[in-house]
Amino acid sequence: MAIECSGRADEASEPGDRATPVPTAAPDLSPPARLVPLLALACGSSVATVYFAQPLLVTLGERFALGPALLGTIVTVTQLGYAAGLLLLVPLGDLLDRRRLITTQLGLLALALLGAGLAPGAAALLGALAAVGLLAVVAQTMVAAAAALTTPARRGRAVGTVTGGIVTGILLARAAAGALADLAGWRAVYLVSAGVTALLAVLLRRALPSTLRPAMPPSDGAGKMSYGRLVASTVTLFVRHPLLRIRGALALLVFAAFSTLWSTVAQPLSGPPWSLSHTAIGAFGLAGAAGAAAAGVAGRWNDRGFAQRTTGAGLALLTLSWLPIGLTGQSLWALAGGAVLLDFAVQAVHVTNQTMIHAVRPDAGSRIIGGYMVFYSAGSGLGALGSSLAHAVAGWPMVTALGAAFSLAALLLWATTRRTTVVGPTGDIG
Question: Taking the model in full, what pTM does it have?
Fold first, then answer.
């Protein structure tokens, strides 16, 4: 699936918004009809494990004696594990057999979830959740696999479908975790997820083609590139290509805003005047799940060459979404509406980002997506910790102001860098 890129500068300014697809030497492969939806399901299930704790924060804080200002630590430690996995594990998709890598990571993720469900104390819980974050990055390996299995003309749709599975998993995780916690306790959330993850590992072992080999990275002079150089090359790619850095910075700010809402919303909803149950709090993820529709739409727009327009519209919508979210104390309908707008905007930008960065170096897809998702993870951790502290200091109004600030910063960054594109050997693709 590799596309040879020139050794000259890969960036250029392009006044237009449209992109001209770059011809590829890849064969006209199409994945089995059911494989992309199965990958979407597995991606959603895997990444959901990172977010199970969000509607349970108050309960976990009481169970493990964590004060309100420390509740964000539960989310942050998982995101730190996720960031480590993005740097250390996702690049392996460019070096090892992806079928074996995906199924092995899913198996290990099931064991980490089992550990979280059986954790006897705070230290054990945080350690298990760090491992969950580390291994949940298998979702990004599956995104890269879906992109590699699909022709360039349909790659945006495939990435959109798989990313739609991810966002649906993130948002439904809250509803599922809340309902299970009310029915059988918080431990059941992780124990049930361990079983589901193990089952998906078996199904993907059977469904993924045995020929799903990596796009071999350049030789280090003595054969295959070493693991150390493979990881280091992720950093090199982002140093070399401004488009990767810009889209990474956008991901950091966008997911900081996303996490600002979803990492803290359980606190105002669990207290007066609403005093909602775990199930009811998690149900707000169902409202936000409507935003997952943006993933498929954005994928189709990207295939048509409207990446920059999609990004700008998404970031403007993200900024505006904080107006109704700020009315959470007065109206749950306002929160639900704002959540739909926020999640729709986030996913539109996220799919656009992934489609654009994969086109920079398709042969390094796993490393590029892994490096990009480090920004995502850093933003998620920043939003979780910042919103927890903001709520402890000044309540929901300060949380809303923080989320709006992240969103506006992303919009301004896009506005000042929107003409930065990437040029392949025959034309503009950014």
Answer: 0.69
